[in-house]
Amino acid sequence: MPRTPQRRRAVPLVLLLAATTGLAAPPAASASGAAEESCSPTEEHLPVCEVGDGGLETAAFLDPTAEVEDAEDVALAERVYVAPFAQLDARRGAIGIGPESNVQDSVSVEGGVRGDRSRTRALEAVGLARDAGVQTGERVILAHGSSVRGPARLGTGPVLEVEGAAGPEEDSGVFLSFGAQVDGAVIERDTALSALSRVGPGVVLRSGTVVLPGKSVDTQAEADDAALGKVRPITDADRLFNAGVVEVNVGLAREYARLAGEDADAVRGIGVDPGGNPFDQARDLPTVDSDLCTGAEVADPAFRNRIIGNVCFEDSAEGLDHAMGERISLRADEGGPFGVGTIEEMDDGVVFHALEGNDLTVGDRVSYGEGAIVHGGGRPQVDPTTGLATPTVVGNDVVLEDGAIVFRSLVRNGAVVGERSAVVGSELEIGQVVPDRTVYANGEVFGPVEW
Q: What is the Cα–Cα distance from 333 to 184, expressed in whole angstroms?
């Protein structure tokens, strides 16, 4: 098993409730019809896109690696964070990202896609014209590797009052988990799509609904009837988790904008995390030559990938250059440190991240397929010595195939996670193989990835 990296600092696990700023809004008008302040990320507004007169407090931030097509048709509202290698393509339809929303690593948002007549009829049935573009409302989370194919609407109605465990509270917005997709659908507020799930053309996902992992919701009946096995009711735990994600990304938008103002090179290539947040106050650089965080610090703004914060590599800087592909984002700007053993191969589009207050440890000779996601978070098991949830750990000689996802799990030595499969809240045995297109959750096969 890999060694546990030494912490540089103790980071408390704090979930902060998100503040609200009014009604959700498309770029031209809010739900009430009033104009919504926004910024188009044209060349003169990169990487900091100032919105309103609030300075850093209301600015949107786009990582310099984010790709924007037809930027004049993209509108970012206050406190939006766009992460490394995200893609916003407005060539076939405008894109509006609402206040306090985030577009995470390697997310793809297409304002419109070509489709046949049946797709067009399905879109029209829910009021989506072919050129309507993609609009999100307030507090919409597009997590790592998720995608939106327009036209689509996500959380664009007014903020709802829902009944929580402690009484009435505001809704949780919209959450798309790792690898999930919205394709020509309407996603109402207070909803979520689990990992590798999908909502298809002409479907409305009603408030209070969560799509189960790997499921493809292709009819309105599947979206509305939990007995059909593709959706479940949203819970207070879902809402609390979403609120924490929003608060973190609002903080990242502000502090990355601050860091870019201090030093434009600091938000490129290999560099520091922005610090300045309750979940990550100090700025740390990545290190090499030791996965225990005792090696030399490295900063290289010209490096082709984004490696941010307290990521600690067993490999040398030259070894990383040789082992890594492109469009890779390893971000220790929320949780950390990350202890990373020797890399056998890391293909394009790999993402590492972790929830606040959580470490991530991966072992030696691990192979990462294209688009693989390794996300740290406390596992369901509790460490009896600390009383805390045990961290995410990937062992030695593990293979993560293309599009594989590991979240809040222990993957023991020699295990294989198949193509477009997800391991969530589980422990894999030595040498265990999770077949392609399979969701393995809570220690058992949950079901296939249906699309």
A: 33
Residues 6+ apart with CB under 8 A from 421: 401, 403, 404, 405, 434, 435, 436, 437, 438, 439, 440, 449
Query: Phi then psi for 415, rounded to 5 degrees?
Result: -75, 160
Joined together, the tokens standing for residue 199 give 């909502």
Structure confidence at residue 431 as a pLDDT band (50, 70, 90)? very high
Question: Distance (Å, rounded) from C-alpha 194 to C-alpha 205?
Answer: 13
Count the neighbouring beta carbons within 10 Å of the beta carbon of residue 223: 24
Domain finish residue from 222, 242, 262: 242
CATH number of the domain that residue 344 is part of:
2.160.10.10
The pTM is what?
Answer: 0.91
For the chain, the domain total comes to 2
pLDDT digits (tens, 9 = 90+) for 199-245: 999 999 999 999 999 999 999 999 999 999 999 999 999 999 999 99
Same domain? For 227 and 296 the reply is no
At 324, list the tokens: 């890594």
What domain range is 121 assigned to? 43-242
- Shared domain check, 233 and 291: no
Please indicate, yes or no, whether residues 212 and 335 belong to a single structural domain of this protein.
Answer: no
CA distance 138 to 21: 8
Radius of gyration (Cα) for the chain, nearest Å? 21
Mean pLDDT estimate for the chain: 91
Contact status, residue 376 vs residue 405, Cβ threshold 8 Å: no
Residues 303 and 420 in one domain: yes
User: What tokens appear for 295 in the block?
Assistant: 């090696």
Determine the Cα–Cα distance for residues 97 and 320; give it in Å rounded to an integer: 34
Structure-block tokens of residue 116? 């046949």
3-state secondary structure at position 228: helix
Both structure tokens of 135: 């609009």
Domain membership flag for residue 425: yes
State which H helix or E strand residue 428 sits in: strand 427-428
With a cut of 70, say whether residue 51 has pLDDT above it.
yes
